Amino acid sequence: MRTCISFDDDHRDQCLRACGAYAWFSVLFIVMLATGCAKHVSVAHAVSIGHSEKGIASWYGEPYHGRKTASGEVYDMDGWTAAHRTLPFGTWVEVTNLTNAKSVRVRITDRGPFVHGRIIDLSRAAAKEIDLIGPGIVRVRIRVIRAPASMPITSCVACTSALPFVAVLYP
Hints:
Blueprint: H1 9-40, E1 52-59, E2 81-83, E3 92-97, E4 103-110, E5 118-122, H2 124-129, E6 137-146, H3 157-169
Parallel strand pairs: 1-5, 2-4
Antiparallel strand pairs: 1-6, 2-5, 3-4, 3-6
Helix pairs in contact: 1-3
């Protein structure tokens, strides 16, 4: 803990106020850090072959093409990939368009979608395969067909990169 040593009462009071503000700032910083990370961390859960979900699918393409995905892979909108909130990276799923029964098999490489009510974001190629491009969203069933070889551990990059700052605040 910091101590305020001063022979002058005015300077000692200023120092004590500064120490109090420092402590409140530290607490506020940690709270903001924790709540910010809570929005970005998605925990992959164990899956079993045959697990299925029904919901709305969408697709993503051009603005994200060539960028890194949450798994670290570079996104290829012409590949057979998808984003899911919780399925482990590397999981293969079969996505069936419930309006026309067309299906496609994709590998989970990213996190999302982050729009309420949607369960999966498909690459442009996968979306084209099940006639999703035109309407933009469609009701689907996803079914796990192959689990990843190993279960990855996901973490919040912001939390990890902020740890040195917390150490400075509380040496």
